[in-house]
Amino acid sequence: MKNHTGRVPQCARCNVKDKICSREDGHGPDFCPTINLKDVIEESLKEYQRPEIREFARLASIQEGECYANRSLKHGHIFAIKPRVQETIEFAHKMGFSRLGIAFCGGLDSEAKILDAILKDQGFEVASVRCKVGRTPKEFIGVREEEKINIGGFEAMCSPITQAMVLNAAETDFNILIGLCVGHDSLFMRYSKALCTVLVTKDRVTGHNPAAALYLQNSYYRKLKKEQFGKGGAFEVVRKKGLG
Asked: 171: phi > 0 → left, psi -120 to 50 → alpha, else beta; which?
């Protein structure tokens, strides 16, 4: 494959109305990967020829279509009819999965319990594992006392790798993530043998609706553009002063 240094795709910045990625007669900007990275696209499409991947992708696409009503009418009449949990259940049935895994955050114990009951009623065998499994102290990964949430006491670390390996041992067909922290979700998906989907994305401030901050980026969350977060940022100062 060619070296593509310097040809960085920036689809999020595309302002083309009739996009070439969606229309046969479409167009694309200078940074368009559909135009510039044809060899990468061709290489990626080879993966869909693997029978298990092709079938997974085919049924996922069918599931996508079934989430809308009035598909035989014009585009303006089409509307969504299924919440994500229903979509997840239907897709799992389409794939013939029998044992599902739930990897969840301890802050969403109730949501995990509800999902477990729903999946059981839908005929699935369910394996579930909480983020603190193993009760491994945070010091094990080098977290200092002042970096804990509850400073001065024992604090078990979230262990997404352990969660993944526990569900691997349970031989789950498909894993569902509920509220794993940023980074923890990444590690879980890296180590999970089964393919995964996310049902709930954790956002402690917005009631697990992270898109809310994006929608309000010009009003209540304009600080996202104006403040420098991370080391030395506004939130760091608040923490050091003992205000947060």
From this structure: left
Query: pLDDT tens across 46-59, in order?
Result: 999 999 999 999 99
Domain boundaries, the chain: 30-82, 83-202, 213-244
pTM of the predicted model as reported, rounded to 2 decimal places? 0.88
Strand-pair partners of 103: 129, 177
Which pLDDT tens digit goes with each residue over 75-129?
788 999 999 999 999 999 999 999 999 999 999 999 999 999 999 999 999 999 9
For residue 185, give the H/E element and its range. Answer: helix 184-191
Q: How far apart (Å, rounded) are the C-alpha atoms in residues 121 and 115? A: 10
- 111-120 pLDDT tens trace: 999 999 999 9
**Nearest-CA neighbor of 141 among 158, 153, 129?**
158
The rounded distance, in Å, linking the Cα atoms of 106 and 202 is: 11
| Burial class (CB within 10 angstroms; exposed 0-12, middle 13-18, buried 19+) of 145 | exposed
> What architecture (CATH level 2) is domain 83-202?
3-Layer(aba) Sandwich (3.40)
pLDDT confidence band for 198 (50 / 70 / 90): very high
Concatenated DSSP letters of 67-104:
TEE-TTS-GGG-EE---HHHHHHHHHHHHT--EEEEEE
- Report the first-to-last Cα separation within the chain, whole angstroms: 49
- Taken in order 24, 1, 10, 215, the sign of the CA dihedral is positive
Over the Cα atoms of the chain, what is R_g? 22
| E-only strand ranges, 174-235 | 174-178, 196-200
